[in-house]
């Protein structure tokens, strides 16, 4: 079981690294396009972003729920509360981000 949990947690780290790096590249590219007066790219639609609107959030949640499984095996089931709270906070933040993004002119297409 520990091997599975370690694999889940390591996979989540890789997912977050890849998606955050891709997002940084996306933002940097849009900043350059804006400087040159060219149209901005509205969203990332390649890689993991093809399947999920916020793949970095998925990676983060995978990490926390992997820790829950690990803690559960150590009879520390109270860790579940932390992961659940994190899920709820992230859901709220996602709603805030989505509302903000919809208001951007180049995203309203």
Task: Please explain how this structure is put together.
- The chain is an all-alpha fold.
- It is built from three helices and no strands.
- Helix 1 runs antiparallel to helix 2 and helix 2 packs antiparallel against helix 3.
- The longest helix has 34 residues.
- The chain is elongated and about 55 Å long.
- It starts with a helix and ends in a 6-residue tail after the last helix.
Keywords, separated by commas or semicolons:
single chain; 109 residues; mainly alpha; elongated
Count of β-strands? 0
The N- to C-terminal Cα distance equals: 47 Å
Rounded mean pLDDT is 87
Q: Which class of secondary structure composition applies to the elements? A: mainly alpha
Percent of residues in beta strands? under 5%
Helix content: over 70%
Low-confidence stretches: none
- How would a crystallographer describe the biggest sheet? none
The arrangement of helices and strands along the chain is HHH
What is the CA-atom radius of gyration, in angstroms?
A: 17 Å
Count of runs of 4 or more consecutive helical residues: 3
Overall geometry: elongated
Could you give the topology of this structure?
Elements: H1 2-35, H2 55-73, H3 79-103
Helix pairs in contact: 1-2, 2-3
Short description:
The chain has 109 residues and is an all-alpha fold. The chain has helices at residues 2-35, 55-73, 79-103.
């Amino acid at each position: 079981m520990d091997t599975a949990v370690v694999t889940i947690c390591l996979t989540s780290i890789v997912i977050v690294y890849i998606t955050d790096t891709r997002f940084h590249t996306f933002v940097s590219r849009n900043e350059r396009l804006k400087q040159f007066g060219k149209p901005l790219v509205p969203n990332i639609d390649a890689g993991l972003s093809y399947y999920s609107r916020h793949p970095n959030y998925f990676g983060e949640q995978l990490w926390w729920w992997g820790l829950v499984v690990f803690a559960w095996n150590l009879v520390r089931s109270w860790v579940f509360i932390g992961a659940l709270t994190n899920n709820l906070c992230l859901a709220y933040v996602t709603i805030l981000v989505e509302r903000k993004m919809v208001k951007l002119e180049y995203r309203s297409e």
